[in-house]
Amino acid sequence: MERQIALLRGINLGPHNRVSMPDLRDLLSGAGMGDVRTYVQSGNVVLSSHLSPEALARQCQSLITACFGLDIAVVVRTRDELAEIVALNPLGQVAENPKRYQVSFLSAPLAPATVENLRSLAAPSERLVASGRELYAWHPDGVARSKLWGRLAGRSLGVTATARNWTTVTTLLSMADA
């Protein structure tokens, strides 16, 4: 079984799409996934599975719909893919606060024109790097008023996307290695 990381999009933010992490762990364990662990309440799951990442994402989404009645998008990366994402760290020289350094995990790479459109939204202090199925974004002034963040967090990219801050990304890698 391969260590994988399932990232659920948009759960436990406010009163909608509420999913209990103990219930989620039980659900996934009961479906045959091994060593299921969650991190914080925002839908970060480290587990072992024989399924491909794409099949695991579909199965997780289907199980969540059946059990919780919610249509939640799921993006999956293998442990090795996550290690490559962390090793690349293209904004590590400028991103001083890991809470304001975000990685958006995409279901597919974006078209170059979409990436350029995103870059045009960045404030002068912000940085954006696209690499394969990830977008690395540095928001030194926070995300609250960021036009770039609004698009990265939205559904208008044409692919499924979910973002995590750098602290979460590196913690998930550590969990996958434990």
Explain the overall architecture.
This protein is α+β, with helices and mostly antiparallel strands. It has two domains: 2-79, 2-Layer Sandwich (Alpha-Beta Plaits), CATH 3.30.70.1280; 81-177, no CATH class. It is built from six helices and eight strands, in the order βαββαβαβαββαβα. It has helices at residues 21-30, 53-68, 79-88, 112-121, 147-152, 166-177, and strands at residues 2-8, 34-39, 44-49, 74-78, 101-106, 127-131, 134-138, 161-165. It has a four-stranded antiparallel β-sheet, sandwiched between helices. The model has no long low-confidence stretch (mean pLDDT 94).
| Rg (CA only) | 16 Å
Query: Gap between N and C termini, in Å?
Result: 15 Å
Any idea how many domains?
A: 2
Helix content estimate:
25-40%
Compute the number of helices.
Answer: 6
pLDDT averaged over residues: 94
Main β sheet profile: 4 strands, antiparallel
Question: Globular, elongated, flat, extended or rod-shaped: what is the shape?
Answer: globular
How are helices and strands ordered from N to C?
EHEEHEHEHEEHEH
State which percent range the strand residues make up.
Answer: 25-35%
Q: Strands of the biggest beta sheet: in what spatial order?
A: 2-3-1-4
| Count of individual beta strands | 8
Pairing-aware structural class of the strands and helices? Answer: alpha+beta
**Uncertain residue ranges:** none
Describe, in short, the structure shown.
This protein is α+β, with helices and mostly antiparallel strands and 178 residues long. It has helices at residues 21-30, 53-68, 79-88, 112-121, 147-152, 166-177, and strands at 2-8, 34-39, 44-49, 74-78, 101-106, 127-131, 134-138, 161-165.
